């Protein structure tokens, strides 16, 4: 006999209800047990991207100001290619998945910038070889081309600066100082004046500091560190309050 035939209807008017019951007197429930609902949580990839951004600028800027008397800054290629390039590109993809178009565009763009900057000086890529004559002398055109290259990224950064004016003070500071740094470095490539490279390095250090602050404000929380270790995000978002 089917389950439906074993059910009886409670028609007690005093209770004013019509509820099916099993032969044992229990309320009938033919529904399937519900599956537990899991709400997937996603982390915030922005601090990783900001740390990568700041670290590349920190390394490059230290070499630009000739820290410790070092004049060969080739080591910065490691930061640019593997940390700045790869990590920021991945962060850009993750931001796109999370629906943050601005963050995805910024991080993926700077990931490409870092990898292309690294490739510019890698012998295996051969860009410098194209500007070298038969005697191994580097053509003056190379520095002029690098200046144009930096100016193009300077314009892109300026566009990002305009687009982030209502985000937070550290982010605006980071993009603003990056614009100045790239302008000075491009001018150094055009003119060969070393003091411009040093000035660009100083502003690059300021950009790195802003990126680090924005990153730490994003992941310093009571779940990972002490409550009193907290950086205010300094949001510039519009509020009617």
Automatic annotation (TrEMBL):
Transmembrane segments: 45-63, 75-94, 146-165, 172-190, 196-220
Database matches in Pfam families: Gpr1_Fun34_YaaH
Presence of keyword Transmembrane: yes
InterPro entries in the record: AceTr, Gpr1/Fun34/SatP-like
Biased composition (Basic and acidic residues): 1-11
Membrane topology: Multi-pass membrane protein
Localization, UniProt: Membrane
Gene Ontology MF, one: acetate transmembrane transporter activity
Entry keyword annotation includes Membrane: yes
Main location: membrane
NCBIfam families cross-referenced by the UniProt entry: AceTr_1
Family, per entry: Belongs to the acetate uptake transporter (AceTr) (TC 2.A.96) family.
Protein name per its UniProtKB record: FUN34 transmembrane protein
């Amino acid at each position: 006999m089917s389950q439906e035939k074993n059910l009886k209807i409670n028609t007690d008017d005093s209770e004013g209800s019509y509820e099916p019951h099993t032969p044992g007197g229990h309320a009938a429930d033919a529904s399937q047990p519900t599956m537990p609902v899991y709400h997937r949580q996603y982390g915030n990839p922005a601090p990783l991207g900001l740390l990568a951004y700041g670290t590349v600028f920190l390394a490059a800027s230290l070499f630009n100001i000739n820290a410790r008397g070092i004049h060969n800054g080739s080591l910065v290629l490691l930061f640019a290619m593997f940390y700045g390039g790869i990590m920021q590109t991945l962060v850009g993809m993750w931001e796109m998945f999370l629906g943050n178009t601005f963050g995805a565009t910024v991080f993926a763009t700077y990931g490409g910038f870092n990898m292309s900057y690294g490739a510019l000086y890698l012998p295996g890529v051969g860009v410098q070889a194209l500007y070298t004559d038969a005697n191994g002398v580097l053509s003056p055109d190379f520095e002029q081309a690098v200046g144009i290259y930096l100016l193009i990224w300077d314009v892109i950064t300026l566009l990002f600066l305009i687009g982030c004016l209502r985000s937070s003070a550290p982010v605006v500071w980071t993009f603003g100082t990056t614009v100045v740094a790239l302008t000075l470095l491009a001018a150094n490539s055009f003119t060969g004046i070393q003091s411009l490279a040093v000035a660009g390095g100083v502003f690059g250090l300021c950009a790195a500091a802003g990126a680090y602050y924005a990153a730490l404000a994003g992941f310093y929380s009571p779940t990972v560190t002490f409550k009193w270790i907290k950086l205010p995000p300094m949001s510039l978002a519009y509020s009617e309050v």
